[in-house]
Amino acid sequence: MTATLGGTELAAGIRGEVATAAAELAAAGTPPGLAVVVATADESSAWYVRSIARAAERTGIACSVVDLGETATPDEIRVELAALSGDPAVHGIILQTPLPADAVVEDLAASIDPAKDVDGANPLSLGRLAAGLPAFAPATAEAVLALLDHHGIPLSGAHAVVVGRSTVVGKPAAHLLLQRDATVTVCHSRTKELAEVTRSADVLVAAVGRPELLTAEHVAEDAVVIDVGTNPTPDGGLVGDVDAGSVTGRAAGLTPVPGGVGPVTTALLLRHTVASARG
Ligand code: NAP
Fold first, then answer.
1. In what order do the strands lie in the sheet with 224-227?
2. Burial of residue 45, with CB atoms counted within 10 A of its CB: 0-12 exposed, 13-18 middle, 19 or more buried
3. Across-strand partners of 94?
4. How confident is the prediction along the chain (279 residues), in pLDDT tens digits per residue?
5. Are both 247 and 157 inside the same structural domain?
6. Which of 52, 96, 188 to mutate to test the pocket of ligand 1 (most atoms within 8 A of CB)?
């Protein structure tokens, strides 16, 4: 029996808290504001930005989307991020990916004031996270931990295997799991015998970006599987990095796609924004 470790209820709870905090902040004269900087014409990115903006507005956070166009230069993006960092009406800044080919997200995100870096994109935020200092963690990585906690999955002493080592998901998720006393293994495209390594996981986090790469052979019986993947399908749907059909019946629990990590990620971005507005 595989439990569905859904994220929609958790996300709704977080948005409720955010709405209360946003109303209090507005009443005190500091209405919270979020800015999303976009420099792409990518349709799935546009869909994601619209969903953030909608969720923000519904919770009482003013959200402005700054679209610099897909021909924006790294310098133009840097200047915009610096301007928003200095804008007192803006408390959270998100630099949306993908970016133009000559732009390096970690480099540009260094122009986001760490106090407003609600998606933990500034390398300083990741460094502080790794050092165990207060910082905004990338929301997707934090959503992994929030889901595990929400569903009561014990982490201390558990073997957590993270597949993927990106700056936005894999690495910060590994740091957060380590902070919770899990024994952490990080896998990537050069990992040998991937299935053997992942089968040793009590908690398996898939953040690969390859549709349904992980199947029953990668999962130990009774493991808990968190699927971060969001891969668009030709028919307009979404599949994860885990083959849910094959893993169901073997794993103890699996997050659905959609409806797992995604909604929690968005809710945490909003929570970070009101935390930043509180100062
Ligand atoms: P990414 O930057 O492309 O990183 C993918 C990672 O997977 C890399 O570390 C890569 O290894 C590794 N990898 C690729 N193929 C592999 C293989 N065959 N075996 C083992 N490892 C392999 O992707 P990302 O930005 O971290 O995103 C990962 C997934 O999460 C994507 O599906 C993305 O859409 C999704 N995502 C979801 C949310 C959400 O809110 N739900 C937010 C962000 C991302 P190398 O380092 O060796 O190349």
1. 3-4, 253-254, 224-227, 203-206, 159-163, 183-187
2. middle
3. 36
4. 999 999 999 999 999 999 999 999 999 999 999 999 999 999 889 989 999 999 999 999 999 999 999 999 999 999 999 999 999 999 999 999 999 999 999 999 999 999 999 999 999 999 999 999 999 999 999 999 999 999 999 999 999 999 999 999 999 999 999 999 999 999 999 999 999 999 999 999 999 999 999 999 999 999 999 999 999 999 989 999 999 999 999 999 999 999 999 999 999 999 999 999 999
5. yes
6. 188
Which ligand 1 atom lies nearest to the CA of residue 170?
26
Which residues span the domain enclosing 82?
A: 29-112
Structural domain contains residue 122 = no
How many domains would you assign to the chain? 2
Rounded to the nearest whole angstrom, what is the distance from the C-alpha of residue 210 to the centroid of ligand 1?
Answer: 7
Q: Would 251 be classed as within a structural domain?
A: yes
Q: Which amino acid is at 80?
A: E
Ligand 1: residues with CB < 6 A are 140, 163-166, 168-170, 187-191, 194, 207-210, 213, 228-231, 241, 261-262, 265
Measured by CA distance, the residue closest to atom 36 of ligand 1 is 229
Is there a contact between 140 and 169 (Cβ–Cβ < 8 Å)? yes
125 in any annotated domain:
no
Read off φ and ψ for residue 65, nearest 5 degrees. Answer: -100, 120
Compute the distance from residue 239 Cα to the ligand 1 centre, in Å.
13
